[in-house]
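PROTEIN DESIGN WORKSHEET
SECTION A - STRUCTURE
LENGTH: 310
TOKENS:
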């Protein structure tokens, strides 16, 4: 009874100090950018500082372990992407429960990915790229945001779908993988649209195809992977907020409602649009289900394709 009263008191007083949003990647990716858009808005609502802290490594598993072990008081949150659900598919021994070791708070965005190559590779369509890769089995490299990251999973699933073999080169985060694709040290990458938008607009990377069901309005000439001859292939990237397990329900509800209000604000929607992601609000229960479904889906896909974290 005393614990219940204490939790209620803590919830009614929340927040009364600095809140940290942990990101499992280097700055520049979707979970980092969306967190940095939300943080000052949450600070305005809550009248407390909200800071974003990057703890990259192991496809976001290092950050997830840190957050899972934190006090469930609402002052340590985590901005995640699909990588969170991919990790247990590649590493069954991950030292936390990906689904029930956290409190799902709110989904924040959803977006397609795209298949990117450097202009120097000399291909201008997915068909040309696949032909090149098939002529050089295991000679092309793809970059990712790290072993166990969604970018690795997406690339291996893509390779399996189009029938090519390539070598994995892991990096600390999306910006590093993209930079080495531009520099030609890796030949292709499957990247969230927002992370590579500036490089594509500058002509430093060539988008061959989108992994969503539809083309992007801003890039009408970039076809989908399905349109390019590989039907039923779709990979979307989403972001959202977690807290440690056993977070008091009142605090979870307060965070969810605050995030929902922010996502409706026109300037926030414009900022999300600028990085080619769509704001999407959910209840904690809906987000929990999405994570659980994604973990099951990725585990099944990993078994089918023979994907490992190596």
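SECTION B - SEQUENCE
RESIDUE ASSIGNMENT:
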């Amino acid at each position: 009874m005393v614990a219940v009263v204490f939790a209620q008191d803590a919830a009614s007083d929340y927040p009364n100090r600095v809140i940290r949003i942990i990101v499992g990647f280097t700055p520049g990716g979707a979970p980092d950018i969306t967190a940095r858009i939300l943080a000052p808005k949450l600070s305005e609502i809550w009248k407390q500082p909200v800071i974003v802290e990057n703890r990259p490594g192991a496809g976001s598993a290092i950050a997830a372990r840190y957050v899972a072990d934190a006090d469930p008081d609402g002052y340590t949150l985590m901005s995640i992407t699909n990588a969170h659900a991919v990790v247990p598919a590649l590493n069954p021994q991950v030292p936390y429960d990906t689904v029930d070791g956290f409190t799902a708070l709110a989904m924040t965005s959803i977006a397609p990915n795209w298949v990117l190559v450097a202009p120097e590779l000399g291909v201008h369509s997915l068909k040309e790229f696949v032909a090149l890769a098939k002529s050089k089995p295991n000679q092309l490299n793809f970059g990712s945001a790290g072993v166990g990251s969604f970018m690795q999973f997406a690339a291996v699933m893509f390779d399996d779908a189009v029938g090519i073999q390539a070598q994995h080169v892991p990096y600390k985060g999306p910006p590093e993988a993209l930079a080495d694709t531009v520099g030609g040290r890796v030949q292709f990458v499957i990247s969230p649209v927002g992370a590579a938008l500036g490089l594509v607009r500058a002509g430093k990377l060539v988008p061959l195809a989108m992994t969503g069901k539809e083309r992007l309005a801003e890039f009408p000439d970039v076809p989908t992977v399905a349109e390019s001859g590989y039907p039923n292939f779709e990979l979307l990237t989403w972001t959202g907020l977690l807290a440690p397990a056993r977070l008091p329900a009142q605090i979870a509800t307060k965070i969810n409602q605050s995030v929902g209000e922010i996502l409706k604000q026109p300037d926030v929607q414009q900022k999300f649009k600028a990085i080619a992601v769509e704001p999407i609000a959910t209840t904690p229960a809906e987000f929990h289900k999405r994570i659980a479904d994604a973990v099951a889906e990725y585990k099944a896909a990993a078994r089918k394709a023979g994907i490992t974290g190596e």
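SECTION C - NOTES
The CA atoms of residues 161 and 230 lie 7 Å apart.
The mean pLDDT is 91.
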